[in-house]
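Researcher: Please predict.
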Amino acid sequence: MPFTTLSLGLTLTIPTSGTRSWGTTMFNTTWTKISNHDHTASGNGAQIGTTALVTNAVTSAKLAKNWGFYRYTSTSTPTGSTQTINWNNGLVQKMTLASASGDVTVTLSNPEDAAIYVLYLIQGATARDVIWPASVKWPQGQKPILSTTNTAIDKITLTYDGTSYYGDWNLDYQ
């Protein structure tokens, strides 16, 4: 199986072709090495210690942000007609529209350049629309027409380039 090896103070093994189990290979080789490295540029392979936590070199917020794509945050539930989606809470989030009092104006906060975000919108018994910020650009200028069925799920994918979000959607998961 072909691999590319990078040496940046520790050796990382990255499969380049010929395997369907590259995720397992990455975890068993590269991730194990990264997680056992103390990130102090010494390359000594020591695990992150409590000193790094005390000096704020490594914080729980930084770690949580790195792991954001592996988990959902709790579901956002707008009680009025506005909702802020804070990307510091994870790259994949859910928002139920059932509790909203009308169409929901969304504010997107704390994006990072070149990040891809996913927002699942879950309809309630009364269908609601989402009003997106001007920074969200849609193909052919057409925002998604959300599903209207109770409990229908629409998936919105947003790519951020440092200035604008570029959106795409998949609708009516049942």
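Model: DSSP finds three helices and ten strands in the chain.
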